[in-house]
Amino acid sequence: MMLKIRPIYFLVFIIFLFSCKSETEKIAERTAARNAIIDSIISSFEKDLLMQQIDSVFAKYDFNGSVLVAKNDEFLYEKANGFEDFRAKTQLTSNSVFAIASISKQFTGVLVLLQEEQGKLSITDKVSKYLVEFQSKEFENITIKQLLNHTSGISDFGKGLLSKPGEKFHYSNKGFRFLGAIIEKVSGKSYDENLKDLFEKVGMKNTFTPNSFHGTNFASAFIGNPKKYFEVENMPKRLAESSISIAAGGILSTAQDMNIWNQSLYNGKILKQPSLLAFKSKSADRNHPILGKMGYGFGIMMNLEKPNSYFHSGYVKGSPSLNIYYPETKTSVIILSNIADETLGKAGFFNPHKSIKRITDNLQKVVVKKRAEVEKAIFEKNDASYNKEN
Fold first, then answer.
1. pLDDT tens readout for residues 122-149
2. Cβ burial 205-219 (10 Å sphere, 16+ → b, else e)
3. Which of 5, 52, 189, 354 has CB atoms 3.0–4.6 Å from 193's, for a disulfide?
4. CA 117: distance to chain centroid?
5. In terms of DSSP bridges, do strands 222-225 and 339-340 run parallel, antiparallel, or are they unpaired?
6. Is the peptide bond preceding residue 236 cis, with omega within 30 degrees of 0?
């Protein structure tokens, strides 16, 4: 038996639906307007604070390098100061290409996980399944995961193990060189080709390997200070040598391209969610010689306390770098340089990087509080205005 609906009731029902839709749209518009105002206020606050504090870091250390702080595609702070080439006095610009050193390790971590997504390997596999170098009794139980989080026990400077696989954290560039070899083995393509595909997928037009870089704007590496320096020889080709290796520390990039990388990676545009979660989850503990205690994932480090952040430092001779991403505000902080006074030690020539990280860590805490205050003020004002109108 069909239910008969009188025309007048049907008309009332349709009018009711349209009136509800209109009210819903009004609420959505008010919410969007509020959020836009809040975002504008917070961004203005961040820009002013960053300009004051990071400019002071540039001045204090006569910092020669490039710094970018970006929230999504909005640049909150950008500055390039000093020289690409100290001899020719070529100025650094936003297009300057730097050696990013061990920041490269996160690209290797992502490439391994992409191979896993295609079913070509599992990170729990023993490395001996893919590389003959691991088929001796001492190395046969080392897994891909242990290479990724530096718990394999492999020594960079000796032939044996520093500890049993999975037992302790021992930072190993050699381990990431082996990961590069595994990627080549299972993909059937060179590491360079794998990176080229990844750069194109992400839209990183100014990021290269030492073998693919034939462009301009290279911030060549120097040792010393702006008054007394010497150039590191054979850059960037030396980054492809086995003593460094592209997979462990050989990528070249710009600050703007690194922001594109951060935003794409952590917003799920490269890896599937299970892979991304594995990549950024703490699976080891590290006591960093400069930045202190932290967690370690697959080529990425993370704060153990607030604010939540993922980061990695890098150093090849003459090129100290630091890349940070704050997931709660989707903010990137990229600090690249092409000169290092090694007489100061890493704790000395990384001072600008540490100072800027301290500034942006503190800013994240302040922003959360500031946003809550602004939201409360605007909501109260708008709600009062809306109630008055209605």
1. 999 999 999 999 999 999 999 999 999 9
2. ebbbbbbebeeeebb
3. 189
4. 21
5. parallel
6. yes
